[in-house]
Amino acid sequence: MLGYTSTELLQHNSQEITHPLDRSMNRKLFNSLINGKRRSYYIEKRYLNKDGDVVWCRVTTSVVDGPDGQVQYVIAMVENFTARSKSRQS
Question: Residue 85 and residue 58: Cα distance in Å, rounded?
Answer without folding.
Answer: 12
